[in-house]
Amino acid sequence: MFREQSFDNLPMENLERPAVGSMASAPAEVKAPAGGLQPTAALPTQRAQWFARASRVMPWGVSSNFRYWGEEGTMVIARGKGAYVWDVDGKRFIDYRLGFGPVILGHAYDAVNQAVIQAMQDGNVFAMTNVHEVRAAEAICRMTGVEQVRFTNSGAESTMHALRVARAHTGRERFIKFEGCYHGAHDHVMWSTSTSPVSAMGSRRNPIPVPTSSGIPSVLRDKVIPLPYNDFEMLERTVRDYGHEIAAILVEPIMGNSACIMPAPGWLEFIRHLCDAHGIVLILDEVKTGFRIAPGGAQQFFNIQADLVAYAKAMGNGFPVGAIGGKREFMMTIEPGAVGQGGTYCGNVVSVAACEATLRVMETEPVFEVINQRGARLMSGIHQLLEQYGVPHAVTGVPAMFGVHIGHTPGLPIPTDYRSMSRFADESLSHRITAALHQRGILPDIDFQEPWFLCYSHSEADIDETLEKYEDALREVLRA
Q1: Half-sphere exposure of 70 (CA within 13 A, CB side)
Q2: CA separation for the pair 346, 152 (Å, rounded)
Q3: pLDDT digits (tens, 9 = 90+) for 263-277
Q4: Are 182 and 200 in contact (CB under 8 A)?
Q5: Could you tell me the fold of the domain covering 75-107+366-479?
Q6: What residues are labeled active site?
Q7: With contact defined as beta carbons under 8 Å apart, do 328 and 308 qualify?
Q8: In this structure, which topology does domain 110-364 adopt according to CATH?
């Protein structure tokens, strides 16, 4: 049912909007550390003062490069509840970033928080199997169809361990990834990602692996084979020529860091066929799609079964938890003393209790139906507004996570891979629209490549308000 629902076949409804209000109390007094920066007239806002403090003790004032939006634009958040976040100056935003996707139910969702509070009363880390871990693993297997699970702490850990298992299983070392796909911040996969310049990637018929960061060992270059997404001929030729060296094909079912470019019809099935024919492990990176686009994730949505699957994000509603799952044949490659997977905090009580509670809500309430309905309205509404105002664009993805590509030239085809997306994009206009939305309390990511995410707590009134303010933003930007 999740795949068949179109994003443009639901009517717009005019529902009464509830009172807005604000959760933020009066801004707290900021006391600088001893000997540190003192608030002055040059730092008038709470945001500026907090960001100055952050910049003293954290590089660029953030704990992840993706959170840095410049000296004046980097936000500092005080709290979140439901579909909203409030910054330290008390401004409320309808949140469509949702922590880069983990918040599937809503910020500070009561059922999850209460389950965590109750569970942690009996301890947190035991370095042994705990009961919450078992119940959460059972729920994952039940919902997704994977046969076994191992817990991790993040999506990056999940893809890292899955890649190791695939190499151990096949005795091969190379793997295929696709340009513009991001699989976490470990060295093996930080090649030709969504921040890499297309100008450095070489010919489409002979792509060059581009490291995403300094500090990545150059010896890893020979282990990764980057290819254009949705290019059947290139993939078939590469597997035919190098299949005996390839341990895995690592693929996002939807290009989550390239504005949700969708797989072409038959693309995932074609990858499955090539893996079967050449003894290659199919790793599906469901860090973003898992427990978000359908109860069983992309495997259910696209009716595809991977050998190994990487999970994180929505499975814990924002708590730090991830997992690898898959067929027993591949998961049992993990073997004490032979093939390593683990970590001190893997399966810690807080994370797996949050996972258990989140999945319980998904199994007992209409989480996906509500998200699909409201996300479909939002996708359709944005598409109609951009069409009405004559802005070249493409809206790609699914209601739970979608991308808005603002184009610079009318008539260009909808992007199907990272290279065509880069040719299509008018990043300047996209940025101006997003900045105008932020001014109006609507919070998609500043980078158009990052999806708009929906959660169970987004209301019909939130969608109405978002579309009204999207039109206001368009009027302002196009008039300038």
Answers
A1: 5
A2: 5
A3: 999 999 999 999 999
A4: no
A5: Aspartate Aminotransferase, domain 1 (3.90.1150)
A6: 182, 285, 313
A7: no
A8: Aspartate Aminotransferase; domain 2 (3.40.640)
